[in-house]
Structure formats: C-alpha cells, structure tokens
Amino acid sequence: MCSALVMACSSSTGTTPGHDGGSDDGGDDGSPPVTTRWAAVTAGGLHSLGIHRDGSLWAWGYAVFGQIGKPCASAVECRDNEPLPMHIGTSTDWTAVAAGEAHSVALASDGTVWTWGGTGVGEIGRECADYACKAVAAKVGQDTDWAAISAGGTATFALKTDGSLWTWGSTNTCPSNCGTKPGAYNLAPARVDAANDWALVAAGGQHVLAIKQDGSLWAWGRNFAGQLGSGARDPDFFSPGTATPQRVGADTDWIGAAAGASHSMALKADGTLWYWGTYDLLNSASLTFALSPTRLGVDRDWKIIAAGSRFGLAIKTDGSLWAWGNPSSGALGNGCDSCNGAPQMVPARIGLDSDWVAISGDRTESFGDLGAHALGLRAVPASGATAWAWGLNQTWQLGIGAQLSPFVSLPRQL
User: Fold this and answer.
1) Where are the domains of the chain?
2) d(CA 220, CA 3)
3) What are 130's strand-pairing partners?
4) 101-112, pLDDT tens digit by residue?
5) Fold designation for 34-413
6) How far apart, in Å, are the Cα atoms of 43 and each of 172, 260, 409?
7) Model's pTM, two decimal places?
8) CA–CA gap between residue 157 and residue 219 (Å, rounded)
9) Nearest to residue 326, comparing CAs of 282, 376, 375?
10) Distance (Å, rounded) from C-alpha 396 to C-alpha 392?
11) Largest CA distance in the chain
C-alpha cells in the first residue's frame, strides 16, 4: 500500500511486555534472528509501532498518552518512554498497524480493528478517563469486515471489505454527518459517504487522501496550505476546511497516496510522482505553496511513497530509497547534522542500498519538530526484513535506544 502505513504486504490486550534486544541470535525454535523478523513498521507522532513476521505487535517511544500500550504499576512508570521495541501482549494475529499523532491502531486477521492511546478526541473510538484505560487495546465495535486502516493526527480511517470508508475522531477530518458530539469529535465509526468503491485511504495531520477503484483521487479536510490540491487554499489556518471528499483533477491512473502535515503526495500508474501543499510552514521566509498536483522531477520508476510531517520518502523500482522536503532534524537521512532552511525539493538518495521494501514518515501535527522521524524496512532473503530508523529521537521514537544526540541523520538499524 502506498501510504503512510507500512506493511511488507491482531487482537491483543495482554499486559506482559518484553523488549526486542536486537540480538542476531536466532530464537530457541530456530526462527530467524530478531533483527530480521520485521514485517511492518509505522511512525507516529512521538512513537512507533511494528509487527514481526510471527504476527506479534511491538511499540516504542513516547508513552504519555498510552499510545505504546505500556502496562504500569504507577503513574510515574506509565509516563516513562521506551527506547527499544516493547512486545505488546501475546497475540500473533496482527496483520497491519497505523500510528497517529498520539494514538495507535491495529488490524487483526479476523477483520477486527483495535485502538489504544489518544488525546481524548475520539480517535480510539471510545472515551477513557485515565491512562490505564487508554493504554489497553480495545476493539472498535463488533464488525469483522475491516480491510485497511490509516491513522491521522487525531482521527482514524478504515476501509471495509465492501469498499465503504469509515472514520472516527476529530471533526477536523470528520464528515458533517458524523459526530456524537457535534462540533467536537466522533466516538463511533461513521461512513464518510455512501460510496462502496474506495480502494485506499491515507490520513494526514488534518486532511485525508483517498483513491477509488476507478483510479480517481479525492481529498478533504483542512486546506490552509493547498494540501487538498483544489487549485486554491484557505488563508485562514484555523478554518475547518471541507468535510466532503472532493475530487482532485480528472485523472484515473492514481495508484498510491500519502498525506503529511501540510502536504500531499500521490503516485501514478506510469511511475511518476506528484506533490502539492507545502513542506515547510515554519520557514515563512521561503514559504511557497503548490495548489494542485505538481510533478516531482522527471523519473518514471517510483514504486512506494510515504509522507512525513514535513518531508517525503519514496522507493524506486530498483529498491533505492530517496527523500526530500524539510532538511532539519535528520529526517532526510542524508547524514547532515546541521541542515536547515528551505525545503529541498530535489529527491536525494539515502545511501547506496537497493533492498528497501517499505517506508513510513511521522504523523506529527501538534508537537512541532519533536516527531520528525522515519522508519523503513530492508529485505533479507528467506528471513524477512531488517528495520531502520532516522530523524529525531528525543522521545526515543527511533527504537535504537536512549541517545544523547537529539536526532540521527543516517538510517540506524533497530
């Protein structure tokens, strides 16, 4: 799937954690080394999630909102961040994960969706009065026909097997017909519209992209930076935007989409890559907006895309990894420890490896530059994939351990 969610392509409420020590020694059962067991990784706001090949679920980073599902015996312990991947529960039936700004979502093999964490605006589909409630994964409703998930800043989106699209959480990206609390947030899944032909959904900070089965591209949510691709933008940053999906152009050859904090990306069937919005709302001196889909470069061999809060990532058909956008905090993975300023809009290759198979960018919206980080998977023949991370690590969201440096500017293996 070409979106913020990363899979090499789920029901757990257990409370016994374990840490992935990164050992290269195989398991007692002859399984591959821990460092090659990864099947999926996804970057949230200040935390990250992953799935091993055995279907087990892992989390690391910021713990304050319960988003890493950390069990605890005291309020102080509840708020200790985790610098290494922590095993959540004992179930081995997780098939997909998505991390929002402060919440987590997982899809189980039986078609159920589970959530935990959150800031209390409905993004987990229930109300919780304390940390203990939020930190425990709970099933969203009773439906067993969920097919795909995507977590935005403060909202969750999910596709069903019948092609219908549903959402819950903040009304910044919630259609006008949903919301048990008008003007605030929606606690229960509500249909985005009556259509049954949705094929892909990619939630950003406060806007959403989706592709229908006919290859058409749609967008809705806030549009202060032109991230809806409509040819215009709302100059009022606090405007709620549009709650109804709006078609982006007339093309019917879109196959992938990814949404950041104030920018959008999409991939066409011919391998071309397109963007709109802006990659940098912080650097006002050089602020520019692309108000409609604009082609990025001339290459036609792009395969997988992902959007960070203020940067973009993409993998080519040859397995090489590329990045562009806001150069600060190491998120471009180029080894530059002092880069800042205007966004770099020419994709630059990260390293020389040609075995990248999955990527994910952070979901930060409210935490400023604290969450600018990225994750990726590199294929290991016959044993799975290794997981790599780069960017900010101030809340240990990279999963590489506690670091004195606030960020890492080159990919580091988990």
Assistant:
1) 34-413
2) 16
3) none
4) 999 999 999 999
5) Methylamine Dehydrogenase; Chain H (2.130.10)
6) 21, 12, 16
7) 0.89
8) 13
9) 282
10) 8
11) 59
